[in-house]
Protein 1
Amino acid sequence: MTEDRNFDDIAHKFVKNIYGSGKGEIRQAVVWQDLESILSRLGESSPLDILDAGGGLAQISQQIAHRGHKVTLCDLSSQMLELAEKDIEEAGLLPQYRFVHAPAQEIAQHVDKPFDLMLFHAVMEWLADPREALDVVLSQVKPGGVASVMFYNQNGLLFKNLICGNLTHVEEGMPHRKRFKLQPQKGLQPEDVYAWIEEAGFNILGKSGVRTFHDYMKDTRTGEFTFEQVVAMEQKLCRQEPFISLGRYIHVYAQRPLEP
């Protein structure tokens, strides 16, 4: 059986290639727009309790912590947590963080109250049983709270392989190529993830495609654009079809109804 991916062996490479890249910048820009909408919905008159499950360097949750909220950062990788703690300390945010070295599936053993907002970003595609983990972290959201979930989109993976001409790879079922250590083990079908969230009792509030065209740009020498234009266009198109379904990742956020 496939095991959950632990990034202890390549934590520094992961940080450089995922967070310190144009792709990472687009991801941050798109998802942060959604999170500003979520924070507005939740209200920020008093500090919110945030769970960043499988949060890596906690780049998104640090932006939330800067607004005065409290964050519990959970990650399977001790190396990633060490890098995150250093980064958080340099940002002057340590008093607002609690660190938990554990897989997301075990978070219930380390917390004693539910959260206003739960972040579960780019984790499921690295797990042997993504739905089990999703159910666990969703259970940590209080009534009225919101879950923010981002996942590697199987449709985007398929489309990327098709336009690159990797038809034999597609016909073989697109098995994971071990030489690509930073490529997720598998994509998830959006309809599956949406169904899992709704079956857990949540109402979906919104969906955004993350990198809906950037990764498909082939010969950019013939175009006229700046990177700033790419980011702005991604932000403009990401919440409408067919672009949502073409995103390399999809961000979906949902609210647990208030109890009667």
Protein 2
Amino acid sequence: MRGVNLALGAAGLAAFLALGEAVPRLGLVKDDHFPPTTRIADALGREVTDGAFWTALGDTLTGWALGLAIAVGAGVAVGLVVSVVPYLREATASTIEFLRPIPSVALIPLAVLLYGTELRSVLLLVVYAAFWQVLIQVLYGVQDVDPVADETARSYGLGTWARIRHVLWPTALPYVMTGVRLAAAVALILAVTAELVIGAPGLGARIAVAQTSQAVPEMYALIVVTGVLGLLINVGARTVERRTLAWHQSVRGEVAV
């Protein structure tokens, strides 16, 4: 089954690349605006031989990784505290629902005022966007705890931290891993967006330079790189999720299928 899926995925990718080659060649769009796949591939080859490209890639991955790590740590800690402390969930519900829908890009002016084009501007946007993905999943995970199991743990005299470790955490962990996977993708999007708009060092800034200098094939090549990064991050997150939750029924069922 996995071999069939891989074959279908490869066939779909080949068809997409062929379409990208044919559309500008047939004159359906101007190749000045959308160059053929082969020209984009040539530009990508030139990029990977340029040391500045790898520096920009490292800057993007640094902002993504640091922002994601901070967001995951803060999201898990805040989620557990809000869920465990009596009445804190109700007291913070309106605040969370007010702050969560605010788009991270709306904070770009604030980030520029505070930190300019430094890495901290990228981190501000990445952390804000990824934090909510993790926090909401932790809250849902703790809410899904079996009340009978929780009461049983209390009756056996387990303290707060023991109940978190043996009852709350195993139940919430699948939700946490889902939040981390979503946050990883969002963090990459915001890292590239911040670089593109603010001008912080990274792939986004390099895309903006290519666009303003009319280096269209190079611009598309860099966009392809960001897409490949997103794919690798998603595959990596799913792999970690499967290994971490190998004991969980959902993962065992997925493997069995």
